[in-house]
Amino acid sequence: MSDAVLLTEPGPGLRLITLNRPAVRNAMTAELTAAWSEAIEAVRRDDGARVLVVTGAGNTFCAGADLSWLDQGAAGDVTPDRLRDRMLPFYRSWLAPRELAIPVVAAVNGPAIGAGLCLALACDLRYAGPATVFSAPFIHLGTHGGMGATWLLPEAVGVARARDMLYTGRAVGGEQAVDWGLASEVGDDALTLALAAAERIAQAAPIATRLTKAGLERAVAGLAEALQWEALAQPVTMATADLHEGVQARRERRPPRFTGT
Q1: Into how many domains does the chain fold?
Q2: Do 210 and 183 belong together in one domain?
Q3: Where is the signal peptide (predicted)?
């Protein structure tokens, strides 16, 4: 695996992906995108992974997409059709946290700009540090938002605030990010906060956790869809050994020892 992305195991059931190109503020270059895809696939195949944490090296989470190739390519390579063919695989690669079966936690240690903001929003939870800034300056760069910005932002902060961010390009800092729903918490060290949350999640029943993530995705379609899913998923968990362990642990006032069975 390229050192553009580091994949480590900071604790039992935890996996940490670090975007490791601080010299370019972890911008989504072709090299970084390929390494990211490889790391995500490794996590997807890892049966021992219960929670993934994503962060950036240096003082930036991710400065967004690297569009320098637009200036370097031949004129024929920047037609709308060709750009669309290039954009869709790029979007899907970086939005992969939505497709992982396990929860994904973003440690937003610095600016998350444009597509970098969308990467953070693609994670299930976000924790901010003192230097964290969220911004969607697309139209002030002369382009339409991409990578799910027009869906992910309203999901996180509501339509009115999403309009504010997309129209004004406003930079939202840590405390305001918590108030707006962009982050769960802000502290001195985003990675410490994110790993603590991930450790807590990793202690939960794995089957129930994965089904809960799947249920939250389906619940977007409405209450009826949520009820149909829960009527299937809850009986599945009720047939697991982990349910009996959880009930017994509660009775004995001790931490449960879930095995994923």
Answers
A1: 2
A2: no
A3: none
